[in-house]
Design brief:
The structure is a single chain. This protein is about 80% helix and about 0% strand. The chain is mostly helical. It is rod-shaped, with a radius of gyration of 24 Å.
């Protein structure tokens, strides 16, 4: 292989690596925004949990409705926490991937 050909291939490969790193950074920015919003949602839900639930246990129907309301709020909180955890895991993976030697231009 000629020296010019090798140089051209190195340039092309570096261009591809730069594009991949740029895409990883773009996804990191999107996921960071999403993670911040999910974290805010979780904090808000925890803070307002009992304000959003009407507790009434005098009548059987009211007790059942109260239990359903608590369960619904708890499931919503759990879903937000789970989503936040998944986004955080993807962010960790992308951060590690971005910093791997394969993507360094040294």
């Amino acid at each position: 292989m000629t020296e010019d050909r090798q140089k051209h291939e190195r340039i092309q490969e570096q261009k591809r690596v730069d594009e991949v790193v740029a895409e990883i950074k773009r996804k990191i920015n999107l996921l960071q925004t999403k993670a911040k919003q999910l974290k805010k949602d979780v904090i808000d839900i925890r803070r307002d949990f009992w304000e959003d639930v009407t507790v009434n246990i005098e009548e059987m129907d009211d007790k059942i409705e109260t239990e359903a309301s608590i369960k619904q709020q708890a499931e919503f909180l759990s879903e937000r926490e789970r989503s936040h955890g998944q986004v955080s895991e993807r962010l960790d993976i992308l951060e590690r991937l971005k910093d791997t030697p394969l993507f360094r231009t040294d």
